[in-house]
Amino acid sequence: MVETAGERRARLPAAVYDLAMRLGVREDDDVSGVRLRQTGRMKRSLDAQSWMEFTATQTISTHACAFNWLAKAGPFGLISARDALEDGAGRLDIMALGFIPIARAQHTPALVRGELMRYLAELPWAPAAILHNTTLRWRTDSADCLVVSAGVGATASEVILSLDSEGRVASGFAADRPRSASAPFLPTPWRGRFSDYRLHNDVWLPFFGEVAWEIGGVATSYWQGRIVQWDAVRAP
After folding, report:
1. Burial track 85-119 (b if 16+ CB lie within 10 A, e otherwise)
2. What is the pLDDT of residues 31-56, one digit of tens each?
3. Largest CA distance in the chain
4. Are 82 and 64 spatial neighbours (Cβ–Cβ below 8 Å)?
């Protein structure tokens, strides 16, 4: 059943609706998802001193908690990675030469929680989901702090979105994102930061993002990415 504008206004806190409007989302938007390309760098492990360059493509649904991130890294792109959330199941695979497994996360509730938190934190890259993903649950903590959650039971996940002086999302924070998909699950504070907002295709988007784990009160960045292409996917 298609949600009416009135039902949407009743479902969403006013501050959440206002955020979507500021970012350029339209009530009658027929966007079903977004497709983007990234370049950036990431660490093989949190304690690594060096960074590895990558290129990636990603699709993000605006009507369900789902995404698919495909990356190539290392010399000549010999290492490939897939990080995804599809049909409620998480997936994280790292391969060499496209067929030699390097790492594969177990399919556990912890993996799903981690992927849900990634989806929630990356809403600034798919802002239409703020209005149109009816599975998201919202509350307002303060004038510049919104909380969004998804999942139930063992996969229940929550991310705090902090707004900047322009009323756009500056960061997403999860107090207990699993740092491992298998026991011990190591719930750890995790934060993503957004910057370089630009008006692109009538939507305000952050073209730079950075992700860090906070251990012992110290934030350690392990992923930095820049958007080089962003397109809305229209419903058929």
Report:
1. beeeebbbebbeeeeeeeeebeebbbbbbbbbbbb
2. 999 999 999 999 988 888 899 999 99
3. 53
4. no
Locate 82 and state its tokens.
């897939």
Element (H, E) at 131: helix 128-132
Highest mean pLDDT: which range of 62-76, 118-132, 183-197, 222-236: 118-132
Q: What pLDDT is recorded for position 201?
A: 95
Whether cis (ω within 30° of 0) applies to the bond prior to 184 is yes
Query: Which domains does the chain carry?
Result: 32-229 (2.50.20)
Global pTM value: 0.94
Count of CB atoms within 10 A of residue 155's CB?
19
Beta carbons of 150 and 157 less than 8 angstroms apart: yes
- How many of the other CB atoms lie within 10 Å of CB of 165? 7
Query: What is the pLDDT at residue 98?
Result: 64
Task: Say how far apart CA 89 and CA 115 lie, in whole Å.
Answer: 9
